[in-house]
Amino acid sequence: MYSELYQYLLQHKELPVPGIGTFLLERKAAVIDFPNKKINPPSYAISMQQGSHLPGKSFFAWLASTLKVSDRDAVFQFNDFAVELKKQISTGDIINWGQVGTLSKGLGGDVKFVPAALSSAIEHPILAEKIIRQKSEHMVRVGEDQKTSAEMVEMLSQTDEKKSYWWAYAMVISLLSIVFIGWYFSTKGVELSSAANTCKAIIQEAPVTYSILP
Fold this sequence. Notes:
This protein is α+β, with helices and mostly antiparallel strands. It has helices spanning 2-12, 57-67, 71-90, 149-163, 166-188, and strands spanning 14-17, 21-28, 31-33, 38-40, 43-49, 95-97, 101-105, 111-115, 126-127, 139-142, 145-148. Helices cover 37% and strands 22% of the residues.
């Protein structure tokens, strides 16, 4: 009956066994593994709470269908299973319940349960790579206005183009200045006098600004 009860635990996540405790199947959420770019599947663990209650009619109906016996026989078989299990633990036996875990007698006379490691072969990790959508538009707030990302890219590219032309203007002016200076000195020569004012100064008499009284 161990395998049938294990299947019931997997399906209904809870299995009460009178005199032993209530076994619970706990599901832990999936975990994102960023370094390896994957999502690990949910994991499962079995625990046992001390104390138990009698299973309901639906449990015995399921057990009768699984064992292919009447509901009355399913009740008797399950009760005999629980009594025999409790007796073995009380006498110091260690019960190895396959994929559920081990049951033994604790120091205080209670039932000690050590869960088994469940296999994760049912579910596998999945890849979780970040998707980058090229040229996808979204709204961007600029001051009091809102613009699309495409409009912002175009605006910034135009600004960069305008800013990138100033050095060209400065280079053209510098080249023209060098050409002019070279032409000037090639025509006038490279002596100091060629850079001076070559016009001769004309001395003129100053007009009379006074008169002699008789």
